[in-house]
Structures are given as structure tokens and as C-alpha cells.
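WARN retry 2 of 3 for item q-0093 after timeout on previous attempt; input resubmitted unchanged.
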Amino acid sequence: MSISKQPQRAENKVSTAKYYEGPAEVTSDVRLHQRFFAYETDAGMVGGADFNVMFAIDRPAREVWPYLKDFNRCKIRTDTTTPG
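OK item q-0093 returned
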């Protein structure tokens, strides 16, 4: 089921991305949500996923900030290209 469309830049000659709801899980104060997307470019189809993780930490921000201020270190990026 398509949930939203996000226009892409015209100079890239890509189609509008279609988003699809993925699984969601809520356990206590942790919420995991996924949605998948696909769009077509001159080079072929592109697909991917967005992951959203929300959680609460029972500590003041000044105690937590030193560990979470560079949250990019926690991200995992994978680029996979399939020929054809």
C-alpha cells in the first residue's frame, strides 16, 4: 500500500518515490518502525528502507548527551547495487 509520494529533483530524471509501510514494533518505551521505498531512474530501479527507532532514557540530558551527541556513529549505511 503506497502511503506517500515524494517528488525527486527534475535534473536527476527520476520518478516519484513510492513508500510502503513496513513492520512496526512497540515494546515498553522502544518503538521500531520501517517503511520501504522504490523509484525508477535512468539507470534502473532503486529501492531502500527507512528505519525509525524511538526510545526514552531515564536520565537527565546532561548525562546522556556525551554518548549520543554524535549519533551518526551509530548509523549503518549499506550501498548495494545489483547489475541488470
